[in-house]
Amino acid sequence: MAAGALRGGGRAAETRWRRHIVGQLKLRDLRQHDKFQDLIRFYTRLLEKTSLTNARVCLFCAPRCPSSDSSLSTLLHQNNQLKKTTGELAYQVVQLQQQIQIKDSVLEEQHARRQQEECRLQGVFDSRLVLQGRVEMVRAEMGALKSDYDVLLERQRGAETKLRQEELRGRDLLQDVIHLKQREAANMNTRNERRCSCCSAPTSRSSSPKLQPESDPQPPRPPRLFRSASAMSPRILTSIRELFERRRGLSVSSLQEDRLFPVGVCLSARLPARALHVLEAHEQGINAVRFNSSSQLLATGGTDRAVKLWDVGAGGKLEGSTEGITCIEFDPTGPRVLAASYDKSALLWRLDDPIPKVTLTGHSRRVTAARFSLNLQVVTGSADRTVRLWDLQRACCVQVVEVASYCSDLICSGYCIISGHYDGKIRVWDTRAVRCIQELPARGKVTSLDISPDHRQLLSCCRDDCLQLVDLRGWSYERVCFRADGFKCGSDSTKAVISPDGCFLAAGSADGAVYIWNVSTGNLETRLPDKHSSSISAVSWSPSGEYVVSVDLSRRAVLWSDL
Amino acid sequence: MADDKDVLRDVWFGRIPTCFLLNQDEVTEREAEPYYLLLPRVSYLTLVTDKVKKHFHKVIRTEDAEEMWFEYEGTPLKWHYPIGVLFDLHASNTVLPWSITVHFKNFPDRDLLHCPSHSVIEAHFMSSIKEADALKHKSQVVNDMQKKDHKQLWMGLQNDKFDQFWAMNRKLMEYPTEDGGFRFIPFRIYQTMSDRPFIQKQYRPVSPEGNVHTLGDLMKAMYPVALSNEGEPKRFQVVIHGIEPLLETPLQWLSEHLSHPDNFLHICVIPVPSD
């Protein structure tokens, strides 16, 4: 076909040879095929037929040959045989019928069994339905349980997250606590360091050691050594108090200041004759000693940095100073103690609180004296040649007075401040004008000052082993000197006192004896030796006049009395 | 083209009426009847003569029956040639039906191949197809076929199923359009004038110049004697499938449509009958 299409010749030529072939083929088939087709078919059929006929002819010819007798006998024989065959067949029929019956019965049985099985099947179906119902129920229950379980799981998860959060918070809190503790410890450490190094003063009240861990509000064994001795003083006091009660001081603002308070006045001081108690009161030398206004309390201050309170009631130990104590004074109203310290500060305690209430800092060298003044003010004198006035309410310095020399002690009397100096001068200052209004000569370094309760006489102690009593009345400033054989001023801060009735002077000597002079005669009244083994640094006469306390640099305190 | 399909059918269903006669020398129990049969031109003698064998076995003794062979006017007929070729070559111009003598003795071993079973015919047929495809497509098509495809070709021939055969044979007749035909045309030219069995050479369907080769070109190249010159009386007939195609018929078309099932174009050259 493709060749035909490709052929370059004309269509007529192309169809010619094709038509020729087709025609030739048709002609060929006509001649060779169609003419003979039927003929040959018929012939074949005839051939088959003749062969069949031949075979039949053969069959017929063969039995015709024997005689009729023999054929009869053969027939009889055949008949017999047939009968036999019939009998056999009948027997077979009977046998088969029996088999059929057996099969029938089997069939019946099977039918019955089948019915039984169907019944059972029905039963099983029913039970299956029931079971299916139960399965459905159980599934539903399971679904419900599952949902419950899911809810519970959810709640548990929520609880767990809450627990985790709480744990986290707990850990945070713990961390905070630990931080706080660490800060506390750090504070304490710095405090301890400061105390040890003695080089830096507390800078402000806020940094004052609030968290002093070892501070013991109630010392385990409050020293009550003087109890028996002081037991009678309140009785005397109360009897006198009623007579002499008066309002003292010009209170400005403080409620506390407005309160009336009794001031004991000693009518006659008793001359001490013997030592009632001898006590190793401090761990190091004692620098200062002072009775309170009710004579019930005795405060001692030593190089061991502590102020110790002795006697009835609120005995205790006041700490907070980082250096040795140089001077102690009780608040005239009683509940507070003021102390000057080597650590360039002055400290104020309440008696019931061992931690300083106020720390006054600002001096550049050690503070040698601290006294209560009017109007809730405090005056301090220092080795830095200044005297400062402090407002206790604001806890700040309100005035600085340049005093030209080392101030060893000072006394407040009304608006006057009297200060003693190492240059051998006693200066009188007016706090209102802030200027020196008087300069009194002394004979050497002034170690201490004291003023009589009636504010008429000023006692000064000098390093020239002489006590000097100045009459402050008028402007004459008469001076009386008191000396004694053996009396020797032991240090630059030896403190001498005037007895509460103003009749005696008491001072400790370097030889360890307490010397008492009579003011009116000017002679040595008595000498109390042998109790101290080293230089006496301070003495204090109780405001009630009954006791004298002397302290020395070798830690010993001795209570003297006439009893 | 419907015509081409008809040609294929005509070629496939070409028949030759034949009368088989038992050889006179055979010993028979009784007289043997002749057996008439329409032989398919494209098939092989041993493939379609089972009935003949059965027919003559009835009359000869079984112990005398050896391998059956055929003879026409003294010429043993080669069963491995297609029947149509045998007829065209030996008996094309005789009176029909074609009378073939059947022998059961004295098998001419020198002239004929033994054919003990149909599998031998199948092997011969398949080898012819492979040879033809080697010429046409370098064996590519036939090698791509599966075993069952080969079987389909053979079964189509054996059971005379035209559609079954051509469904597969169609592939063997394909060629790339740009080539314009097969590589070589598988053909064989038979003649009776010499001892040479047939002529088979490589011949292309298209000349190197691009012209389509025709049957005449082929004969001129292979067997010029077969062609008569101008003015001379025709001496030879070129017969394919019992017909004489025009010499101008393209060779490629002939190969596609007038080839035997073995894919060869069998061409017989016979002398023109004198009368």
UniProtKB/TrEMBL annotation, chain A:
One GO term (biological process)? autophagosome assembly
InterPro entries from the UniProt entry: ATG16, WD40/YVTN_repeat-like_dom_sf, WD40_PAC1, WD40_repeat_CS, WD40_repeat_dom_sf, WD40_rpt
Q: CDD domains recorded for this chain?
A: WD40
Which Pfam families does the record match to this protein?
Answer: WD40
The residue spans of each WD repeat are 279-312, 318-352, 360-400, 417-439, 499-527, 529-563
Specify the protein name: Autophagy-related protein 16 domain-containing protein
Looking at the record, which segments are called Disordered? Answer: 191-230
Q: Does the keyword Protease apply?
A: no
Per UniProt, which keywords does this protein have? Answer: Repeat, WD repeat
Asked if the Swiss-Prot or TrEMBL record annotates the protein with the keyword Repeat, the reply is yes
UniProtKB/TrEMBL annotation, chain B:
Domain Autophagy protein ATG5 alpha-helical bundle region: from-to ranges: 120-174
* Record-annotated Autophagy protein ATG5 UblA domain positions: 11-104
Q: Does the keyword Kinase apply?
A: no
Q: What is its main location?
A: cytoplasm
Q: How does it assemble?
A: Conjugated with ATG12.
Tell me the superkingdom of the source: Eukaryota
What the record says about family reads:
Belongs to the ATG5 family.
Relate the protein's function as given in its record. Involved in autophagic vesicle formation.
Tell me which Gene3D superfamilies the record gives: 3.10.20.620, Autophagy protein Apg5, helix rich domain, Phosphatidylinositol 3-kinase Catalytic Subunit, Chain A, domain 1
Q: Which residues form the Autophagy protein ATG5 UblB domain?
A: 185-269
Q: What is this protein called?
A: Autophagy protein 5
One example of a Gene Ontology biological process annotation: autophagosome assembly
Report how it sits in the membrane: Peripheral membrane protein
Which GO cellular component terms, listed alphabetically, does the Swiss-Prot or TrEMBL entry include? Atg12-Atg5-Atg16 complex; autophagosome; mitochondria-associated endoplasmic reticulum membrane contact site; phagophore; phagophore assembly site membrane
The keyword Acetylation belongs to this UniProt entry's keyword annotation: yes
